[in-house]
Amino acid sequence: MTSLLELVVRLALWLLLAPLLPGVVNKVKAWAAGRTGPPVLQLYYDLSRLWGKSVVMSGLASPGLVAGPAIAWVALVAAAMLLPLGPAGGALSFSGDVLLLVALLAAARFCTAWAAMEAGSAFGGMGAAREVSFAVLSEAALITAILSLSVQTGSVVLDGMLSLSSGPGAVLLAAGLFCVLLAENCRVPFDDPNTHLELTMIHEAMALDHSGPPLAVILHGASVKLLIFAVLVSEAVLPLGRLPATEAAAALAASVAFVTVGVGLVESLLARLAFRRVPLLLTSAFLLCLFALLLAWKGGAR
Amino acid sequence: MSIGLLLLAALAALGASVVLGRSLPRAWLALSVAGSGAILAAAVVELAGAPEWEWRSAFRIGGEPLHLRLDGLSAIFAALLGAVGALGAIYGREYWSDRHAGGSAPRGRAWWSAMLVSMGFVLLSSNGLHFLIAWESFAISGYFLITLDDRHRGAREAGWLYLASSHAGTLCLFAFFAILAGRTGSWDLGPMHGQPGLAPLFWLAFCGFGVKAGLFPLHIWLPSAHANAPSHVSALMSGVAIKMGIYGLVRFGGWLPLPAAAGWVLMGAGMLTALFGIASAFAQNDLKRLLAYCSVENVGIIAIGVGGAFLGAAHGDAPWGRLLLAGALLHVWSHGLLKSLLFLGAGSVVNATGTREISRLGGLWRPMPWTAAAFCLGAAAISGLPPLNGFVSEWMVFLGLFEAAADRGPCAWAAGPAAIALATAGALAVATFIKAASTAFLGAPRSKAVSGARECGPLMRGPMLALAGASLAAGLAPFALWPALARAVGSWNPRWAGAGPPAPLLPLGAANIALAALLAVAAAWLWRRAHANGLRRGPTWDCGYSAPTPRMQYTGGSFSGIEAGWLSWMLRSGRVRHPPRGLFPADAERIEPVSEAVLARVLEPAGRFVLRLSAGTRRLQHGRLPFYIAYLVGGLAALAALVMIK
Q1: Most CB within 10 Å of its CB: which of A115, B12, B509, B621?
Q2: ipTM for this prediction
Q3: Residue B585 lies in a domain
Q4: What is the pTM of this model?
Q5: What are the b/e assignments for B587-610, b being 16+ CB within 10 Å?
Q6: A41 touches chain B (CB under 8 A)
Q7: A2 in a structural domain
Q8: Which of B394, B530, B538 lies at the smallest CB-CB distance from A212?
């Protein structure tokens, strides 16, 4: 019974807190630009409004236009459930769960891109093509980061890998994973979530032909993904397992808030990269993770 | 029933179907399905725990006594052979029927059964000479199946290339088995760990079986052969035939003493193969060629697992080696089923539209919902996405690599890069299959070819759905497959036998089942919600563009444009341009064919060089008698000089 209760609380925490992050990012951006900006809870309002709206579906689209976002959302939430929450650990923990997490992120990408191709629009194709092409580099960086954590701690379980600090490579790993966070969540300098009708957008281009509840699910899934990466970066760097439970939870929350504000500041201070530069930055992120891996190899805990 | 009886029944049924196949299509179908089913049943009995089946007979072929054996390892491959053989036969009955394919259909039926029989003998033979005979007849029946449609120049050229490279591989195998027989004094095969002098022979086997498996850079024959063969033949070739190369590598890697570098080289080759294969696949615009290159990638993944198992066995039988071998063998099954499914789906598309060009397709989900659903499931599974079978096997390989890397032994130098390569290949596979499936099945029809498309009949649909169901079932209950894998791994390396499941397959299976249930519930719920709120159909919005046409959609080429740009050094596509000219340009054209990197840059220049050399030598042959006499005198003088010096 307690485990069921714990599962429900954990799920509620992820689902309810996630839409806060884009709100915080937008608030930071508004503050940096000297504007008032939208309320922090704006995404919640948007989601509830979209959930009640009717749907306009392209005449070309198959039921996959609706099923794709649903499957992607489930995959992201399942990935979130695997991720340990500081002292609370993960909902399901087994050897190799970290690889399931990576595969779930890939499944979400597959379904989002699939749904983007449904309407047969040029923008959808553009967004999907960019998303999957850049993901090749960011996935290489992500798996290298995970490998370095695994080598550092000698464990292939998320709980074990993330409870210790990543050691001497922590700074490199933090920088690399932060780049992956920006790329995977389509933030500046890889993509600008505020653009519309521009030829350089990625995530927005994929969501253009969606409306109503499916669009709400896509937006909520994107916020869950941002929270997943924020938690992953925080836990990879902080030695939460060495702290008492309350302090660890507080440190995790503070760190997630710090990362979120960081995303907002990056977005305020940097311009979007030219498109041909994107692979360069992602390759740098991969190299950072690779150096973290080498450091872990030579100076790990065991 | 005992394994021997089942195999005898399979031989009888398939042998009869070779003979009857030409004239009696119905009897052929029944017999070949029954024969394949018997092979499958024998393999299942063996994998379920029956003792290893071995049969020695005084009956001699080629002067050697017949010696057959079915152990856990060969049963894994035999099960795949039986399953794909039966389903492909059912599919082929409609796809390559007498009415549809005319005169080549009877030939196709006979060679199909012949190919099944010869592959079965490859798996069973425990005598070097008989192995070679079976291997050669398997290669030749493959050739006749690839060139069934011999009116097409592409099929003839592909068949020739296949035959030539296949024989280059067989040449290595001839040398391998002959030297082996010479060193051991007998053609009989079996474990030979006591003779460390045999280790260097592995390299001959590596080249010979590597050609069949399609390891980079020996894969040159594979894309064109799989693309130009009839689709049920592509399914058999890609699903089962290239696995025979893997079988040979695993089999003789287990029986012979291995050179120290074997695991490293195989793993390195696997990494290169996986990355090269999937990068080339992403750039392809021909649906079947794309699938063929993806087979190259998956052979790379299997080779990484097998190479890791070699390393693990050499480094104190490390448990991760066992996991890698089990993962590789499970991936043999996963890829065999999935690639058959995808090729059958591609065949159904080709049948309905008459084109393999992805950029001419589009919107096929409406006329062909079953094919679209099955192909989409196969695409998701082969991209390694949970909760399907491709994910489970790739996950096992990944986990083995991670454990090897976390060990920080010397093998981590191979395991770490392999894990990174595998992840990159996985992300590229997602991109490749989004491109293939969504361009072909979603959006609006891009050409007239699609307008007349109709869903395929029940005999073609059934096998596809069966394969899709098997892929889902294997993904949801991976722990049910563990005993079979453990048996195969145990028969490869007895020191790995017996221990319980190393991988936490139970929680993974539970997670997969929960995930599948949640996916279905969530999709249904969102669908209902959308309908409850009111769902209208309208034109594609596309940022308010008022008159979108199907030609404005992203094509296969534009989808992979970014990646093709990164890899232009490798895929350097010869651009054929006919740019628009003048104030009122009439027609313009731009074609970007993707080159076959190894064939076009290495093999063809080398071939031209040899030809030039030969043409130069031919000048000596001019028909003037005095010169011939001069040659003779010169030759004699040279010989005399040689003798004098000695």
Answers
A1: A115
A2: 0.95
A3: no
A4: 0.94
A5: eeeeeeebebbbbeeeeeeeeeee
A6: no
A7: no
A8: B530
